């Protein structure tokens, strides 16, 4: 390989870093860790790379763009986050590039690398849950400002998080049902870790460091456990219904539960998708809301105020979440520290007519 034929990709491969990281180091533009800088410069010297080749082909200075990576832009929760990010970022002088991952870790990795190659100044991401979030870690280690949206996982504890307080959100809903006199309160949630582990965390401090490493669905189960304990209600594991993350799965799970004969006077569904399925499941069994069963959903979806009775919901401050994430990220880009490391926003309980005091016996369906 001649000196003239050595490319930026060759240097990146030799150094074991991304192309974008090598580009930032060799162009002396943007941030990179000391370790990354040393590896790139050693690789460039070993291969005989001429830094001025890159310098002639790249713009100097920041791009005034940030990237945002979400699982599904169609979901209203993430659409509202995008709006909050875009409005706040533009006010701060940044434009926004968006990527949709479909909850696929390979798509996420390609999206992150593409954003890095486009030399965005920072990235906000609602990460795909996986054992090894190497793509996020690599960019962060190379000096890219990264802010997590809605969730984090093991390995990303050092990155700033902007999220709704998932534990408190579910606790509010279940406490409201308990205050209405309900003691047999069912919860519809996605699959979660062993209930014994969640009970341990429910009994620990509200600021337990492991809470933010759990999926939002697991955190909401903890909120349920805390609410019933606070109201002196004994836990019945049969009242926790697990469902896949589809409307159909949620409907079928609720229908099976209602057909099982397990007593219940109220139900809380812990996300927007499950809320739609749960409501259909209740109505498909011929039950009236709230006469036969009180119901609280999640997220103020358009349909929740179009049905009769209107549905009580836990409303997440989605647009505010996006705006907060943009503020944290642009501050990081400008050199500020991530302090605090965790921003938890409070959800609001919107009480409507799908909830009522318990005045009828518990439901027993066969």
UniProtKB/TrEMBL annotation:
InterPro entries: HTH_LacI, LacI/GalR-like_sensor, Lambda_DNA-bd_dom_sf, Peripla_BP_I. Residues 6-60 form the HTH lacI-type domain. It comes from the Bacteria. GO terms for molecular function: DNA binding. PROSITE patterns: HTH_LACI_1 (PS00356), HTH_LACI_2 (PS50932). Gene3D superfamilies: 3.40.50.2300, lambda repressor-like DNA-binding domains (1.10.260.40). Keywords: DNA-binding, Repressor, Transcription, Transcription regulation. SUPFAM superfamilies: lambda repressor-like DNA-binding domains (SSF47413), Periplasmic binding protein-like I (SSF53822). This is LacI family DNA-binding transcriptional regulator.
């Amino acid at each position: 390989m001649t000196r003239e034929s050595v490319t930026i990709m060759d240097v990146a491969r030799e150094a074991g870093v991304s192309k974008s990281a090598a580009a930032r180091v060799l162009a002396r533009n943007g941030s990179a860790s000391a370790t990354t800088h040393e590896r790139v410069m050693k690789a460039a010297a070993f291969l005989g790379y001429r830094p001025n080749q890159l310098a002639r082909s790249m713009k100097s200075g920041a791009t005034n763009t940030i990237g945002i990576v979400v699982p599904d832009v169609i979901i209203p929760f993430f659409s509202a986050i995008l709006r909050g990010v875009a409005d706040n970022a533009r006010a701060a002088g940044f434009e926004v590039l968006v990527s949709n991952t479909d909850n696929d870790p390979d798509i996420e990795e390609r999206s992150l690398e593409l954003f890095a190659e486009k030399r965005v100044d920072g990235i906000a991401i609602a990460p795909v849950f996986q054992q090894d979030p190497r793509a996020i870690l690599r960019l962060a280690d190379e000096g890219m400002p990264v802010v997590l949206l809605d969730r984090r996982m093991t390995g990303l504890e050092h990155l700033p998080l902007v999220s709704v307080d998932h534990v408190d959100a579910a606790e509010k809903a279940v406490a409201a049902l308990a205050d209405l006199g309900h003691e047999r309160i069912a919860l519809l949630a996605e699959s979660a870790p062993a209930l014994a582990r969640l009970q341990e965390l429910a009994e620990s401090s509200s600021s337990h460091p492991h809470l933010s490493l759990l999926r939002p669905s697991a955190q909401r189960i903890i909120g349920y456990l805390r609410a019933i304990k606070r109201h002196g209600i004994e836990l019945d594991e049969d009242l926790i219904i697990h469902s896949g993350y589809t409307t159909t799965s949620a409907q079928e799970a609720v229908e099976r539960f209602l057909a099982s004969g397990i007593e219940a006077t109220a139900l809380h569904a812990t996300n927007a998708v499950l809320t739609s399925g749960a409501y259909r499941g209740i109505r498909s069994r011929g039950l009236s809301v709230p006469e036969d069963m009180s119901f609280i959903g999640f997220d103020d979806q358009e349909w929740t105020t179009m049905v009769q009775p209107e549905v009580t919901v836990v409303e997440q401050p989605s647009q505010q979440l996006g705006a907060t994430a943009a503020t944290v990220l642009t501050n990081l880009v400008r050199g500020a520290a991530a302090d605090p490391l965790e921003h938890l926003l409070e959800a609001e309980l919107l009480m409507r007519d799908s909830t009522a005091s318990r005045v009828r016996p518990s439901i027993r369906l066969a």
